[in-house]
Amino acid sequence: MRMNYIHVLSDYLCHRFPWWKDGELSYEPAQKTVYVYCRYVCGPRTLLPDAEAIARLDIGVERFIIKMPGAMDVVIKCQPHQSKKRL
């Protein structure tokens, strides 16, 4: 079975961020944006501790937009070459 970019990305994100497992990914190549539709996340507090790690991913994505039921969308702008202090 051949894996495309979104499958590889999904596997990596599910391994790195366990709360991501119940989400669905879509990718908009023109905007270099990954949309994550989380179904069972407890809320933004669940993912905020991981926001810095997500922002530092160097995978050719400019931003992640994470959509959760009952919460505002969380937008994480990717800045892969920034130090932790500058984020």
Features:
alpha+beta, 87 residues, single chain
Topology:
Elements: H1 5-16, E1 23-28, E2 33-38, H2 44-47, H3 51-55, E3 63-67, E4 74-77
Parallel strand pairs: 2-3
Antiparallel strand pairs: 1-2, 3-4
Question: Can you walk me through this structure?
Answer:
The protein has one domain. Helix content is 24%, strand content 24%. It has three helices and four strands. Strand 1 (23-28) and strand 2 form a beta hairpin. The longest helix has 12 residues, at 5-16.
Number of strands: 4
The overall number of domains is 1
Measured between the Cα atoms of the first and last residue, the distance is 38 Å
Strand content: 15-25%
Order of helices and strands: HEEHHEE
Helix/strand class: alpha+beta
How would you sum up the global shape? globular
The largest sheet is:
4 strands, mixed
